[in-house]
Amino acid sequence: MIIYSNNIVTPDKVLKGYINIENGKITAINSCCNSPFLDLKDAIILPGFIDQHTHGWGRGSFFYENDINSLKMMIEDQAKEGVTGFLATTFTDALPSIFQSIDAANAVYNEKIKGSKLLGVHLEGPFISKEFKGAQKEEACLEPSLDLLKEFIARQKDKSMIKLMTIAPELKGAKEVIEYCRDNNIQISAGHTGADFETLIESKKWGVSGVTHMYSAMRSLHHRNPGVVGAALYDKDIYCEFAKQTGITVRHEVFDLTYRLKGADKIIMTTDALGNGKQKEAYYHATRDVDFIPEKDKLIERSRKDGSEIIYDLNDYESIRKIELSYIDSIRNMMNHSDISWIDLSKMVATNSAKYLGIDNERGSIEAGKYADLTIITPDIDLLLTIVEGEIVHSNIEGVS
User: Fold this and answer.
1) What is the β-pairing status of strands 208-211 and 239-242?
2) Is the pTM of this model over 0.90?
3) What is the sign of the dihedral through the CA atoms of 65, 71, 76 and 82?
């Protein structure tokens, strides 16, 4: 397959050219072509979106269902939003549930399914602060245990599957757990944490390299006590992961300020989506001030402010996708409020996460020798094509499949 565009976003420049794809990988980017090609004209070709923090999306929820089918549905539906690879993210839950999640991922990891690529697992907890638990379950928040971590690792069939863990580094025993993760190629992010400035900076020596959902569920910035937020902003090496940009959880101005301070090289965009269509019990969403009420194949969203309702059809993807903000819709919000170049965008949606997870030798940028994971959009950030390992897995272009 050969694809042409006037806007191929490579690591250092935006090119006009032809991307040659063979056996799932990019073999060359050429300035001319004598073979048939797909002409995408002014479309923007980005390295495929990577979502390293997602509990669920669309018709599948690793959070609510944590089974094999939920992962398969996520794989299919993530691709419809431009995501080419993701980490299935656990919740801080009872240990049998976490073990079940690892087992489900074992069954799907490395399986060939048309859609987004399951790149591995992100363990969000259970070694997190009860004080800064956020929406996590307090009774499931545990002190770091090296023995338990070893159980998680041993449960994997493929020892590369667990790629990321979120932990509160101030907890007793955290240093030992973090160092063991580092030695076993598991990236560590500080999250759901009440660490002070000094502790977070010190934890870098153990293996902490970033923070989970920047600003949320962490000790905030004060001019006398900079906290986790202050440390993440101050230290040039720490990556700041952001959940979806609604402008509510993190105001656009605050995101923009962080972008100015950290630069594109240290920001990672994710969704932290839950797959809310699959919840089994009524659930209050504090940020939106609504109740979600499951009712057979429907989900009712009821406002606490005025009692108005939105009814979602769980059998209709176009309906269910509106329950949460998708990856591409989050990126459009961000781009509408911040002055970001296509090259900087490519870093925040793909390159940085690939580096963070240690898979940048294969993914995360448009270069010869890497997998052809491509998210192709209009200049207005509407999705045209999602390509995973050289295969078109979702198309919004008539006649192209």
Assistant:
1) parallel
2) yes
3) positive
